Amino acid sequence: MNETALFTLSYGVYLCTSWDEGRPVGCVANSAMQITSKPATVAVSINRNNYTHRCITETGHFAVTVLAENSDPMLIGKFGFSSSQDTDKFEDTPYRVRGKLPVPDGGLAYLCCKVIGKMETATHTVFLGEVYDCDLIRSGKPMTYAYYHEVLKGKTSVNAPTYRGEEKSDGRTRWVCTVCGYEYDGETPFEELPDDWVCPMCGVGKEYFKKI
Known about the structure:
The protein is mostly beta strands. The protein folds into two domains: about 10-145, Electron Transport, Fmn-binding Protein, Chain A (Pnp Oxidase, Chain A), CATH 2.30.110.10; about 170-210, Single Sheet (Rubrerythrin, domain 2), CATH 2.20.28. The chain contains three helices and twelve strands. A seven-stranded antiparallel beta sheet has the order 2-1-5-8-9-4-3. The protein has a three-stranded antiparallel beta sheet with strand order 11-10-12, with no helix packed on it. It has a two-stranded antiparallel sheet with strand order 6-7.
């Protein structure tokens, strides 16, 4: 079986959020799609290891925020590479309560949904949600997963359905963030990163980078 055929499927980059006893929580999702138009219904796939999965199950509600190409990449690093169980992902992240759910600022649009069904797979739950509130937040172009990888040089979380394991190196020297997996391999090679270096994806300092 040639699994590279799966690479031809299209994906976006979304933030899926909910509540944990009044505390906003969320994670990154790349598998979301509209199922019907009347009533408007969407499906989103969430790994059962994600703390947000538990919160969606308990509350029966979730919001999907569609990210734009010019959304702050740190949103992906913050929501995609740490757990809401022990990290306040909304600390220093402006958000508004829309349709009774927390929606981070900086996205392109949002959809607030009530869970009306679900399907279990080996690792993920596909939540079926009826949309009861949605709107555009600002203008822009939706971010695709291809853009995230090819332009932003982002990596895939181990909980994502598209995770393929460790990628092989091509022999070039890179600095890799040990938190989110971002790789710096720009035109200016660094033997040592500058003291004020900050990961453009998750915001950690140079001490979290390693050279490969």
